[in-house]
Amino acid sequence: MTFPGATQPGETVSAGYPPxxxxxxxxxxxxxxxxxxxxxxxxxxxxxxxxxxxxPGPGMPAPRTxxxxxxxxxxxxxxxxxxxxxxxxxxxxxxxxxxxxxxxQKGAGLAxxxxxxxxxxFVFLAAxxxxxxxxAPDNGPSELGLASSxxxxxxSTGTNGFDVSGVVDVQCNPPSTWTSxxxxxxxxxxxxxxQIGQYHGTVDADGSNGDYQWHGTWDPSGTPA
Length: 225
Description:
The protein is α+β, with helices and mostly antiparallel strands. Among the domains are: 64-135; 143-219. It has helices at residues 27-30, 67-78, 80-100, 108-135, 143-155, and strands at 64-65, 105-106, 169-173, 183-189, 195-204, 213-219. The strands form two sheets. It has a four-stranded antiparallel beta sheet with strand order 3-4-5-6, with helices on one face. The protein has a two-stranded parallel sheet with strand order 1-2.
């Protein structure tokens, strides 16, 4: 005789827990499966936008120095501004290559130093050229041009002419700097290379169109004894 709740032969019951209840065979046909998470079929696989730096592991080669960075630095140091013409482009390419290697190459400091030194050369040369152009003294007309103009004035019969005859050659000593108030002397020669007088000139301010101007006096007595 069995009593309700009694354990049947061969049946194991855990202490403190009720025996498992049999499931109806009709529940499996109506049971809803656990919903799967939605996956976007058009989604791109995740990619880390910040690549990990190159860290050599056991047996892996250490980062090597980029050869272009070395050559760029050597060129600008040894050949100066001439080497900078090649060293600067090499340094730009070297820095780009080193950046893309993710640490497998080194030498970015050498490439940067080559760029700084190379551009410093060009700035220095540009400053020298600018100072030379802006600060260069105005030397006035050429010696040959001045002598030709003085000879024309001496032989001219116009308002500013001196109507000197027999002038064969004129040699002038222009002033060291062509500034207003500077003076110069021209020696006038006749036939047989004999000096027949001197022309004494004084520099005037340049004309509105930049022409060189001066005024002078004719000294026929300025002849050697």
